[in-house]
Amino acid sequence: MTEKLTNITPITEFLLMGFTDDQVLQGLYVPFFFLSYLTALMGNLLIIILTTTDRRLQSPMYFFLKNLSLIDICCISVTVPKSIINSLTKSHSISFLGCASQIFLFIFLAGTEYALLIVMSYDRYVAICHPLYYETIMNRGTCLQMVTASWASGCVYGSIHVAGAFSVHFCGPYIVHQFFCDIPSVLTLACSGEQILEYAFIVTSCTFVSVCFLFLVASYIYIFSAVLRIPSAQGRFKTFSTCVPHLTVVILFVFSGIASYLGTNSKSASSLNLFMSVLYSVLPPSLNPFIYSLRNKDMKAALGKILGGKMLPKT
C-alpha cells in the first residue's frame, strides 16, 4: 500500500509524444497539420462571413452551417496549433490545467458538432419530405432552440467527461502517446482500478451516440426514399450528391471516434490510434467547408459577389 502511494506524485504537466517515435511521420505531420489547419480556418471563416453578410443565405440550413463552421474553427484550434508549436520548439510539455482544458474543450465542441449534425439531418428531412410545412416547423424560434440545445448538451457532455477523467490519481510516467490530450490516452496513466467511472461514462456515451446515429440514418433513409420519387434525373442526382457526402462525413466522424474511445489503448505509441484520432479531430473541420457549403450554388454566387460581382465558374 505504501509503495502504491509513493508512486502517486503531484502532477504539473504531461508530455505529448504522439509522433516522436516515428521519424517519417514526424517529418510529414507538421506540414500536413499546418495545411489542414489553414484550410479549415480559411474555409470555415469564409462560410461564416458569407452566411452573415449575404441576405440570400439566411435560411435555417445556412444558420446551422454558420454554427457548424464556428465549431469546426474552435475544435481544430484546440488541438492542432499546440501540436505544431510543440514539434517546432522540440518541447512536448502541456500543463495539467492545459491538458484538462484541452479535453473539456474538445469533448464540448465535438459533442456540440454531433448534436448539430443531427439537427441538420432533421432540417434536410423536413425540407425534402415535408416541404409544405418546412417554414412552419423550422421557424426562427425553433432553430434558435435547436442550436442552443446543441451547445448546451456539448457543454454538459464535456463537463461530465473531464470530471470523470480527472477524478483519478495518476501514477506516471506522465507521457501521453497522442498529439493532444484525449481521454483514452490520459486514462492509461491512471493508477490501476481508478478508471472505472470514466470508462462507464465512455461506454454510456458511445451507446447514446450510436442510438442517435440510428435516428440520423433513419432520417436519411426517408430522404433517399423521397428523392427516388423525384421525376427529374438531374434533381435526384443533385440531392444525392449533397446528402451522400454529408452522411459520409458523419460516419467517418462517429465511427473513428467510437473506435478510438472503445478500442484498446496501451501506454506505448500506436500508429493506428494516431491515425484514428486524425480522422475524427483533424479531417472533418478541414473537409466540412467543401462538403457542406462551398459546393453549393448559392454559396458560390455569394462568394462571386464578394470577389467583385463575378459569378464563379460552374463545376
Automatic annotation (TrEMBL):
Transmembrane segments: 28-50, 62-81, 93-117, 196-223, 244-262, 274-294
Gene3D superfamilies the UniProt entry points to: Rhodopsin 7-helix transmembrane proteins
Domain of life: Eukaryota
Entry's Gene Ontology molecular function annotations: G protein-coupled receptor activity; olfactory receptor activity
Record membrane topology: Multi-pass membrane protein
Keywords in alphabetical order: Cell membrane, G-protein coupled receptor, Membrane, Olfaction, Receptor, Sensory transduction, Transducer, Transmembrane, Transmembrane helix
SUPFAM superfamilies noted in UniProt: Family A G protein-coupled receptor-like
Any one annotated GO CC term: plasma membrane
Pfam families noted in UniProt: 7tm_4
UniProt-annotated location(s): Cell membrane
Domain G-protein coupled receptors family 1 profile: 43-292
Main location: membrane
Entry's family note: Belongs to the G-protein coupled receptor 1 family.
Function field: Putative odorant or sperm cell receptor.
The protein's name: Olfactory receptor
Lineage, highest ranks first: Eukaryota, Metazoa, Chordata, Craniata, Vertebrata
